Amino acid sequence: MKILVTARLSDDVVSLIEQDHEVEMNRENRPMERGALLAGIAGKQGVLCSISDRVDEEFLALAPGLKIIANFGVGFDHIDIAAASRRGIPVTYTPGVLTDATADIAFALILAVSRRVVEGDRMTREGGFRFWAPFHFLGRQVSGKTLGIVGMGRIGEAVARRAAGFDMKIVYHGRNRLDPADEQRLRARYLPLHELLREADFVSLHVPLTTETRHLIGLEELRLMKPSAVLINTSRGPVVNEAALVEALQEGRIGGAGLDVYENEPELAAGLSGLENVVLLPHVGSATIETRTKMALMAVENLLVGLRGEQPPNCLNWSSVMGVKGR
Ligand code: 8YV
User: Does the pTM exceed 0.85?
Assistant: First the structure.
């Protein structure tokens, strides 16, 4: 069958697909332009895609024979799952394998913002380290502070486990409350969102992007946070109203922010890059060799099983697909 791979994968991984199928792969180290993507999907039976590819009605209409959409990533807000389901196409993702890497980046941002790691590095390189003094370059203590986790799924839990090592108090908010045993294991206390925002020294976002979570954190929510509090976002940019965040940071309503994702990625909101109290990363939550290798292997396995017409291991819409096929 004919497969489109929209992002460059290692030769070893691609060869797993090539054993039985014909692969057209984007060999550039950058996403496909929309026109090339639409031209590429025509006549394909399978696609291995990433966050940079919008999989919508227009895309799906060009590939009537599509049997599987295998996403390279855990977030799937760029894929119209309902449209794929209506056409009986399974959509898969890569949960679990990127949990630790993403939780590590959330923690890296917590530490980097609080202890002014990036600012200090820049100043030192520029020759600005000329003396030691008791009040020189002071940051905020992380240990012992209160961490508010918004979205206590796999990644939220992994952040909570890391926070325990820093003796942090953990409060959380999510669609569902954890079982009491899990709350005890994670030493996490459930709070309504507004109370969490008032109590936390750090607020870390770990929700998927949905219609409910778009702009979950806006002006009103930022106003509830402590003036010293730090917002961390490693989930999806549009969960935060970025213009409101810039305003809150400029006015000192909150203490700082650590961001790995942006509302109009890869663009930054006006004023964001000029702020000293932010650390900005280029969406690298899962970017370790180990994790990206596992994600690629998982996506390929999902793809190959889907091409056989069987249930892929990490399928998001199998019951809908079965419903359509059973009709
Ligand atoms: C990926 C991510 O790098 O998995 C996700 O949802 O945001 C990142 O780990 C990205 O999605 C690549 O498609």
Answer: yes
